[in-house]
Amino acid sequence: MSKKNNNNEMNENEKSKKDKKKKKRKFPLLLFLLLVLIIVAILYFGKGGGLGFGLSGNKEAENTTEADTTEKVEEKTITIEVKQGQYFIDGKEVTLTDIEQIIKENDVEHTKYVMDDNYAGTQSWNELKALFSNQGITPVMEE
């Protein structure tokens, strides 16, 4: 009976040694897989933000649309003061022809025209309103 116990003990010792060797072989494999997973995660979720592996450049510049570009354009305001039959822009006297030229030179979508009534005569006020109407512009009235 002692020989059987002795054999069983040897078999168990051999089995435990084999198990330890298997565990030792698994450790480098698990470490390697973990390292690969970390590298893939960094490349995928890092600065690149996708499968471009971080070499795609500036994605914000690629994703700008025409609407974004037009939002950056500042709106210009031109105030036209109508005073007793005369027209003034920034304190400088102008004619209706000058105002029409200014309208043609400026972008209609990004220019706001303000009409300031400073004791304006009815005729000059109506002429200025007609000029804007002919150009398809609705000015802001300031009284």
Commentary on this structure:
With 143 residues, the protein is an alpha/beta fold. The protein has helices at residues 2-45, 59-62, 66-71, 96-105, 122-134, and strands at 76-83, 86-89, 92-94, 111-117, 140-142. It folds into 2 domains: 1-63, no CATH class; 66-142, no CATH class. It has 5 helices and 5 strands, in the order H-H-H-E-E-E-H-E-H-E. A 5-stranded mixed sheet has the order 3-2-1-4-5. Helix 5 links the parallel strand 4 (111-117) and strand 5. The longest helix has 44 residues, at 2-45.
Summarize this structure briefly:
With 143 residues, the protein is of the alpha/beta class.
Helicity, as a percent range: 40-55%
How would you write the strand order of the largest sheet?
Answer: 3-2-1-4-5
| Overall number of strands | 5
Strand content: 15-25%
Enumerate how many helices there are, as a single number: 5
How confident overall, as mean pLDDT? 75
First and last CA, distance: 119 Å
- Overall geometry: rod-shaped
Gyration radius, in Å: 41 Å
Question: What structural class do helix, strand and pairing data support?
Answer: alpha/beta
Largest sheet, described in full? 5 strands, mixed
Poorly predicted runs are none
* Helix and strand sequence: HHHEEEHEHE
Instruction: Supply the number of structural domains.
Output: 2
